[in-house]
């Protein structure tokens, strides 16, 4: 994560700007009342379709550069990161590129939204913030880089993330409710019931459901408890559970 991306006085990095442009234009395709319009623009390479083509080209170029750079640094050694594992699997570069882009698109805005809400909540709960800092320093006190094994041991931080996403999920729209952008009451669509306020229902989370209490996620041993994905739907319940769930916790 580049902290300079938070500085609004600076121009956005080219890759981030291209991602935003491509995502916005692609979404506009889906809401267009007449599909033939954007298809005609694509055929003529004009307007927003021209911008989309240029944005996709830039994204592809940046990811291709990442893949080439990783291959050069890997040599014959096995890397522990996700990109290294993709390359070691024997997939061709184009397939790896598309997989990397998929992970970037799935985790880019959701990760930033989740971290933003977490920081906002921590600023109002200094005692919890201190526990977060204490857990980090207890694992790495010398400023060393954290590894995946270190992250797995940060139970309190994971509990904070779960509690933050329970109150303020990064993805808030119900895609099944096509006629309502946000369900403001219990909604039944095609025989399926979507209760309003799933993350704040008293029968699921208790009378203190509106409070930021990370300890509700911890058992008596201080490890994160297993909660039914039908109660905590931030990553969607099975069989359509988010494939990058554990990776999301690591990146946050």
TrEMBL record:
Coiled-coil spans in chain: none
Cofactor: heme
Keywords recorded for this protein, A-Z: Heme, Iron, Metal-binding, Oxidoreductase
Pfam family, one: p450
Annotated residues for binding of heme: 242
Gene3D superfamilies referenced in this protein's UniProt entry, alphabetically: Cytochrome P450 (1.10.630.10)
InterPro entries reported for this sequence: Cyt_P450 (IPR001128), Cyt_P450_E_grp-IV (IPR002403), Cyt_P450_sf (IPR036396)
GO molecular function terms listed in the Swiss-Prot or TrEMBL record: heme binding; iron ion binding; monooxygenase activity; oxidoreductase activity, acting on paired donors, with incorporation or reduction of molecular oxygen
Keyword Iron (UniProt): yes
Family: Belongs to the cytochrome P450 family.
Protein name: Cytochrome
Organism of derivation: Sesamum angolense
């Amino acid at each position: 994560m580049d902290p300079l991306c938070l500085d609004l006085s600076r121009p956005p990095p080219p890759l981030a700007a291209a991602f935003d442009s491509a995502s916005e234009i692609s979404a506009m395709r889906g809401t267009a009342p007449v599909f033939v319009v954007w298809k005609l623009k694509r055929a003529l390479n004009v307007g927003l379709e021209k911008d989309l083509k240029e944005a996709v080209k830039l994204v592809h170029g940046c990811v291709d550069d990442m893949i080439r750079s990783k291959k050069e640094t890997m040599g014959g050694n096995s890397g522990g990161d996700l990109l290294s594992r993709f390359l070691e699997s024997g997939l061709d570069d184009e397939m790896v590129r598309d997989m990397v882009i998929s992970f970037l698109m799935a985790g880019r805005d959701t990760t930033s939204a989740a971290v933003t809400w977490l920081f906002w909540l921590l600023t109002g709960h200094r005692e919890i913030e201190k526990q977060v800092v204490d857990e980090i320093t207890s694992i790495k006190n010398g400023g060393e880089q954290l590894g995946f094994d270190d992250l797995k041991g940060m139970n309190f931080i994971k509990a904070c993330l779960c509690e933050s996403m329970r109150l303020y999920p990064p993805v808030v729209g119900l895609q099944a409710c096509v006629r309502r952008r946000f369900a403001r009451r219990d909604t039944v669509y095609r025989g399926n019931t979507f209760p309003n306020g799933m993350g704040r229902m008293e029968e699921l989370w208790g009378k203190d459901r509106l409070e930021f209490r990370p300890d509700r996620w911890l058992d008596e041993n201080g490890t994160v408890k297993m909660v039914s994905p039908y109660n905590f739907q931030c990553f969607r319940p099975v069989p359509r559970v988010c494939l990058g769930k554990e990776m999301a916790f690591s990146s946050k």
